[in-house]
Amino acid sequence: xxxxxxxxxxxxxxxxxxxxxxxxxxxxxxxxxxxxxxxxxxxxxxxxxxxxxxxxxxxxxxxxxxxxxxxxxxxxxxxxxxxxxxxxxxxxxxxxxxxxxxxxxxxxxxxxxxxxxxxxxx
Amino acid sequence: xxxxxxxxxxxxxxxxxxxxxxxxxxxxxxxxxxxxxxxxxxxxxxxxxxxxxxxxxxxxxxxxxxxxxxxxxxxxxxxxxxxxxxxxxxxxxxxxxxxxxxxxxx
Lengths: 122, 106
Hints:
Chain A is mainly β. Chain A has strands spanning 3-7, 10-12, 18-25, 34-39, 45-51, 60-62, 70-75, 80-85, 94-102, 108-112, 116-120. Chain B is mainly beta.
């Protein structure tokens, strides 16, 4: 079964750090770009960032709202994706989803994890 | 960044109805538009990629169309399980943006 499972969410104070993980199974992880998408409580979806695969030198892209505060990385040997978040703000409170990118240039997110909740509060 | 305007934000309909959701982008994106369904408390699910390509397993009552800046998602013959939220997403640029969402209610 193709699956993504996030972990690492929790409560953190403003200015703090958190590292989210995403374990992939059921597909060739190393072949795919992987992205993070978040959803604040009661709000819509917001793309957070991407890490490309080895052929694209694991290059990354980030949304302006998080650029400079987050780092997305991957470990293909462990079929794992990571999101390191620093200098967290209250507005970073959201469910964070790990997603698989599908369809080449179409950049569609065809597989989603169940999400992990990050709450930034004092 | 490309702005995506989705409408309506909410929509009331009945089982069996036909509904249309629209997304408009701030610049032409060819057919680089995807549609997702999100049920309450669940992760989104990809319905349509490339503006009109139905994902495997998605019922044929879902239809996507459009190109350039104007796109539509049409659901014909609404079923009880279709009452969810729907989002469009432009994938033309490396900074991807979603529409604000449409909540489809009974």
